[in-house]
Write a structure and sequence with these properties.
By secondary structure, the protein is an alpha+beta fold. It is 23% helix and 30% strand. It has helices at 3-26, 265-293, 297-318; strands at residues 31-32, 38-41, 49-51, 60-63, 69-72, 77-81, 88-92, 108-113, 119-123, 139-141, 145-146, 156-162, 168-174, 179-185, 193-197, 204-209, 213-218, 224-227, 230-233, 245-248, 254-257, 261-262. Strands 3-2-21-20 form a 4-stranded antiparallel β-sheet, with no helix packed on it. Strands 4-5-6-7 form a 4-stranded antiparallel β-sheet, with no helix packed on it.
Amino acid sequence: MKFATSALLGLLGGLGLVSLTSFALLRSPAYKTRGLPTEHLAHGAGEWKVIASPPAEPASLVALPGNELAALRYGDQAEVLSPSTLTWTTKAVTVEAPLAFPSGGPTHIFWSPLSPTEALAAYYDDVATGAKSDKCQLYLEPKHERLPVLPPPCERASGATRLTRGAILALAWSAGDQQTRGMLLEPGAQAWKDAGVLPEDGNGELVSGAGDRALYAGFGKRVVLFEDGAWKALPKNVEPRYAYKFALADDGAVLITGGQQDEAAGKTVLVGLLPLLALGGLLSLAIVARVKWKASVGGMVAGFAVSLLLAAIAFVAMLPLFAWH
């Protein structure tokens, strides 16, 4: 086999290896971000119902008076979900912006807006001294009012909200027993009351709703509802997901949309093995070509080197598309 033919064989093999390696890198970590259905759970229902998704990707989901739920766009336009027909209607909706975390503020564990003028927060560093803060110390912002410290076995506050009756509901994480426990601070009280262990643990956000309800969702394995002073894991979603948007209606209905979903473990492993499989195939092809067709080793190496050079040039040319500097 001539040098040029051997070089072409090395070039094609190298381009194939580079292509499969690029595909594997782009698919890692392997998750699906689009195509997940919007799901609605009526209060007390035994299973989620898949409904039409909002016509446009929402910036956030919020509850409106009259048991309506709204998918907010940027600006005052929103898609409002009718509680009776579960259909979307475009309307102009005015929602006050929540209190934002101050620019340049200390590193916070969480920041939970309560209204346009108030928020609950916990910090890694003390706001006044800069020293390490008690991770079970909650503050009412922006006045930086200290609330009573969450009692042991709390090792870190992981969320908080205010119920409609004025009580503060907080989440206390304990690494020792790997549990998140709810704690209640009634108006005017100086001590927290135990509100029970969450039935399903995981990272998420705690938001309040009408009727002293609260919802813990966003990243956990299950959506958890706090109602009548107790936690209850809601039915499993039709499509398991995380990093999704959610809202709790005044009547206790729950809406979720978007998010990410892990692929099957076997598929993830297969994608990760593609570069090794391609490299093994390329080496096998090179051995066969050398033994059977007397291919030039120098030619195949040269062709392979050219493929790597072309890949490097393509990578550098694509950097501006990703705004890398």
